[in-house]
Amino acid sequence: MKRILLLLPFLLSMAEPLKEQKFRVELEDKGGTKHSLRGLVCGGRAYLKVREGSVDYSLEFSSIRSIEVLSQEGQQMRVRVSFKNRSSKEYTLPSDLYCKGNALGGEAGFFLRDIRAIFITEEK
After folding, report:
1. Residue of 51, 123, 124, 70 lying closest to 40 (CA atoms)
2. What DSSP line would sit under the chain, residue for residue?
3. Contact 56/50 with Cβ under 8 angstroms?
């Protein structure tokens, strides 16, 4: 019982709404449906945690123009991240990465493996 009480603040903090972020997210799922969101959090982080070879990187969403899911092999996915400076790079992500963003009627959540592409633009 004491363990549950100790975990309660952590569990409640997971239910907090997304903080307001100053960018729009347009995404297309694998079925071709397009979704419009504001802000993005993946894996509970306001940045994208990726791996290239043996090195982990934390990529700020504000520096990313798009994320394209290329393939999935077991528990890993290959994605191409295009940056606002026009460069792009391929990275590895876990296939069970869960993301969420603010939608018109509330909060939208999705696994990145179910998405074809994500486009991020700054709000004016």
Report:
1. 123
2. -HHHHHHHHHHHHHTSPPPP-SEEEEEEETTS-EEEEEEEEETTBSEEEEEETTEEEEEEGGGEEEEEEEEEETTEEEEEEEETTS-EEEEEEETT-EEEEEETTEEEEEEGGGEEEEEEEE--
3. yes
pLDDT in tens, 15-37: 444 455 688 999 999 999 999 99
Instruction: Give residue 2's pLDDT.
Output: 52
Structural domain boundaries, residue 16: 2-122
User: Residues 6 or more apart from 103 whose CB is under 8 A from it?
Assistant: 35, 36, 37, 38
Q: Find residue 41's DSSP bridge partners.
A: 100
Gap between the Cα atoms of 124 and 119, Å rounded: 16
What is the residue whose two structure tokens read 């092999």? Answer: 73
Structure token pair of residue 8: 């309660």
> Which of 48, 93, 43, 52 has the alpha carbon at shortest distance from 66?
48
Domain count, the chain: 1
Q: How far is Cα 89 from Cα 5, in angstroms, rounded to an integer?
A: 44
